UniProtKB/TrEMBL annotation:
One Pfam family from the record: LPG_synthase_TM
Record's protein name: HpnL family protein
Membrane-crossing residue ranges in chain numbering: 33-56, 77-99, 119-138, 150-167, 207-229, 268-289
Domain of life assignment: Bacteria
Species annotation: Novosphingobium nitrogenifigens DSM 19370
InterPro entries: L-PG_synthase/AglD
Predominant localisation class: membrane
Keyword Acyltransferase recorded: no
Compartment list: Cell membrane
UniProt entry tagged with the keyword Amino-acid biosynthesis: no
Length: 318
């Protein structure tokens, strides 16, 4: 909650410092029709994310794509709009799948693989963005000042991915020890999850498919920023936007403990946008469009999720 309040204060101050009226005027050029088109594009990206998670769960039929897509919508809605970190979204999305009758071992095993391939996809997208950034910003003194943050953020992302991948089995071993001490009946489940992980990683075609869908989702998210700018009447090279977006996504991911990366996203746009020829107020207008999209998609998702939870509780009480 404290991180949310501080992040919100930083976001408001950043927008105010860049001239609130100009930021709102630029964002307003998106219009209702443009905003709906932007939201529709984002829904398509959730379809890619759902397909990635489904691919990481061998044995689940393709007909369950809508269920996995729904779970991803809930995950992002919780992470973006509730005062939780991304960990809260992971827990809730796993519950959504488990409540639909998918075995717990498959839910948690596929969740780990999905997260791993998603992080790997982001690293590839970030490295592509850095390569573009090097050629675009070479000789730019302002870019040199931001280089430590850019390279540091990328390094942290790669380190987190490697640590997450290498620690999966050790984390399960530690969880098994803790569970044996406090929850004796849960040790069997941890063994099942460990076995499920081994089975999924043995299906390399599914792991590669999950990676491919996640990488496509990152690229599509970057293109979404370009689409939003075009709808605002801002003409900018798609390569510039993809490079900028890869940097923003990296900084957001490093700040995963801050709900919705509040404040981090706004400061990153205000500082990095001008390096690509995008005025700070226009970059912040794009940030506001993203926040509005998160609310427009996340709020109905959370409402439906709560309605489903209440329906399940009511059915059990009967």
């Amino acid at each position: 909650m404290l991180a949310t309040i501080v992040g919100l204060a930083v976001a408001v101050w950043t927008v105010g410092a860049a001239d609130f009226a100009n930021v709102m005027h630029t964002a307003g050029r998106l219009g209702a029709g443009g905003f709906l088109a932007y939201c529709a594009w984002s829904l398509g990206i959730y379809g890619l994310l759902g397909a990635a998670w489904l691919a990481a769960a061998p044995g689940e039929p393709g007909a369950r794509l809508s269920l996995f897509t729904w779970a991803r919508l809930v995950r992002e809605g919780v992470a973006d709009l509730l005062p939780f970190s991304h960990l809260g979204g992971l827990i809730v999305s796993a519950r959504v799948l488990a409540s639909a009758g998918i075995p717990a071992r498959r839910v948690y095993g596929s969740l780990v693989v999905d997260m791993t391939t998603e992080m790997a996809g982001q690293v590839v997208f970030t490295l592509f963005g850095l390569a573009q950034m090097t050629s675009i910003l070479i000789g730019n003194h302002a870019a040199v000042a931001l280089r430590p943050a850019i390279l540091g953020g990328t390094g942290v992302m790669i380190a987190l991915m490697l640590a997450f991948f290498g620690a999966q089995q050790r984390a399960l071993d530690l969880a098994a020890v803790i569970a044996a001490r406090f929850l004796p009946n849960s040790t069997g489940m941890l063994a099942e999850i460990r076995g499920e992980l081994r089975a999924i990683y043995a299906r390399r075609d599914h792991v590669l498919l999950a990676f491919g869908f996640n990488l496509l989702a990152w690229i599509a998210s970057g293109i979404g920023g370009w689409i939003a700018l075009r709808l605002m009447g801002v003409s900018m090279s798609i390569w510039y936007v993809l490079s900028l977006e890869s940097l923003i996504f990296t900084l957001r991911s490093v700040a995963f403990m801050i709900p919705g990366a509040l404040g981090v996203q706004e400061v990153a746009y205000a500082l990095a946008g001008p390096l690509f020829g995008l005025p700070a107020e226009t970059a912040l207008a794009l940030s506001l469009a993203k926040r509005a999209r998160e609310i427009a998609l996340g709020a109905p998702t959370l409402l439906l999720w709560q309605m489903n939870e209440m329906r399940a509780i009511t059915a059990k009480s009967r």
